[in-house]
Amino acid sequence: MSPFSEGRPSLSELLVDRKALTLSQARALQLAAQGLLQAPKRRARREDVIAAIQRMRLLQIDSIHVVARSPYLVLYARLGDYPQAWLEEALENGRIAECWAHEACFVTAADIGSHRAWRAQAQSNHWADKHAARARDANLQEMHALLERVRTTGAVRASDFERAERAASGWWEWKPEKRWLEAWFASGELMVTRRERFQRVYDLAERVLAKLDPPFDGALLSRSTTELRQHFILDSVRALGITQARWIADYFRLKPAVDDRELAPLLAAGDLLSVQVAGWGSAAYVHRDHAALLDSAYAGRLRATQTALLSPFDPLVWDRARVRAMFDFDYTIECYVPAAKRRYGYYVLPILHRGRLIGRLDAKAHRAEGQFEIKALFLEEGIAPTDRMVAEVAEAIAAMAAWHGTPEVRLGRCRPASLAPALRAHWRR
């Protein structure tokens, strides 16, 4: 039962007379919910990896590693210096699991049941499902033979199978066994039991589910489509901190889009709170779990002090429309854009500084040489670098480079040009 029921006014009703949040206050609320408002106050612990994924509700996986691979970068922005091996340990120990959500993602063991139930009800329209269906249609007999091999001999890697002919890249150009493993993974018969050098090791879902901590709750599989959709809507709002209805569906790739009408019952139940943000023509929504954060935002007590380099696949920035409205930051992941059409570079990291996205840098780690190369660094138009900004950005770059094992920073061109000597002067101290 809601604590705001039984004749008492709901928190949403109590908020009616309040002034609209400023955009700065809304940003602070979103950063707080995402774990990016302030730098961590202590050294990271293993359990913090689980807590960070639980806070975000998912951690997107991407294998590009011109810098550290994206999931490690997303965690680093929230945890600071931590051993990357902790993520693989959490997977092997059953604290987290892999599934298709926003894209391929890590989720906590507590959340995997809802994702499996959603996909079992064929509610996902993800591209991975379409490729999996094509693989089953064309090679069902061979796929069943592969599944039987896993059942009788144990977990396998794609590299356990020889490639008959050389392929280029992409799902459809993988060797057949890799496509079949991924198809069984997409449909739920196989799961990822661990990773070796970041490569998936597949095993029967029943064996992976048996080792989860907390234990897998099979009762989740009986939840209705409506219940599951509401679950993911609420999880999206909780993870985002504050959001418009139109941004909700992207977080878990829900279809159809979420609108204000669908959210009305959740407001009535007290699960969501409706607030206004100055300059927004639409209502904003906050999860009831963030009521205290919302109160702090209204009171101006959420102070953004964090400076961090963000992964291109960080949930704070992956929705272009949302990040433009929230942070006035126009961002495209350009590693998938032809080189001639890139504006900023191949692997561009947004720069978060004290509640604003102030710029971006194109980075590459040269591991053998121990060098962290910044090919280019751009501040946003209208951002004037202050001494404090330069010092904190320089420290954030140096700290990431050291954590990455490439402590020598090599800086290319900057906009404005005066930023380059200021950064280099800081690193020489």
TrEMBL record:
<protein>
    <recommendedName>
        <fullName>Winged helix-turn-helix domain-containing protein</fullName>
    </recommendedName>
</protein>
<dbReference type="Pfam" id="PF06224">
    <property type="entry name" value="AlkZ-like"/>
</dbReference>
<dbReference type="InterPro" id="IPR009351">
    <property type="entry name" value="AlkZ-like"/>
</dbReference>
